[in-house]
Amino acid sequence: xxxxxxxxxxxxxxxxxxxxxxxxxxxxxxxxxxxxxxxxxxxxxxxxxxxxxxxxxxxxxxxxxxxxxxxxxxxxxxxxxxxxxxxxxxxxxxxxxxxxxxxxxxxxxxxxxxxxxxxxxxxxxxxxxxxxxxxxxxxxxxxxxxxxxxxxxxxxxxxxxxxxxxxxxxxxxxxxxxxxxxxxxxxxxxxxxxxxxxxxxxxxxxxxxxxxxxxxxxxxxxxxxxxxxxxxxx
Length: 234
Prior knowledge:
- The chain is 38% helix and 19% strand.
- By secondary structure, the chain is of the alpha/beta class.
- It folds into two domains: 2-22 and 87-233, Rossmann fold (3-Layer(aba) Sandwich), CATH 3.40.50; 23-85.
- A hairpin with a 6-residue loop joins strand 10 and strand 11 (227-233).
């Protein structure tokens, strides 16, 4: 383990695999769907974590009518409804989130609005984590991860709420290569979490730091414009 410190003005968090340990629930749901359509679930596991469900439908299930994302939205509802009992908060999530000033963090997820808010209602609120003021989901962007649109939009909305001028220091928390690439492309420092992929995969994707879970990150030195993250990284 090595300790490093990073000063930042805001933090932007992915949701699945970053605040909610939902990988098993997500993979179970995709396995059922892929097998139903005679596809190999491993195709999804290898390269599509962190990608919008609507984009995965286009890639692997073009025969399904997904007009207005109705089918992909319905599928995501089944993830939390049918498999939500397998999900839990990531270790250290509550302590870290509640240490960050409430107007200096947001969610940027590839999940749909219903599923993302569902994880808060089913898992995170019970762990003491309230919904942030800025909450970006799949329907809020034209292009999903690895495109940086979501992280750029989240940072801009926080910037407008803070009234302190342009934000130049930001940290993204991610568990998947697509999200790491999106965070880097947005100009952020990226902390990768090994909840879904091994350290080497996250480093190869470009993560600046890699941690086992969020208990390895501590907030220090909060002032009017920024704060410091102490990172105990792998």
